[in-house]
Amino acid sequence: MLLAEVEYARPSSVDEALRVLSAHEGARALAGGQTLTNVMKARAAAPDVLVDLADLDELRRIVRGADGRLEIGAMATYSELIASPEVAAVRPILAEVSAQIADVQVRNRGTLGGNLCTSDPTNHLPPLMAALGATMTIAGAAGERVVKADEFFLGVYMTAVAPDELLTKVTIRAVDGEGDGFDAVTIGRDGTCIANAAATVRDGQARVALGCVAAVPVVVSAAAEESAVIEAVRAAGLDPPGDVHASAGYRRHLAAVLAARAVGKALEGRS
Ligand SMILES: Cc1cc2nc3c(=O)[nH]c(=O)nc-3n(C[C@H](O)[C@H](O)[C@H](O)COP(=O)(O)OP(=O)(O)OC[C@H]3O[C@@H](n4cnc5c(N)ncnc54)[C@H](O)[C@@H]3O)c2cc1C
Question: Which of 23, 35, 37, 132 has the most CB atoms around it within 10 Å of its CB?
Answer without folding.
Answer: 132
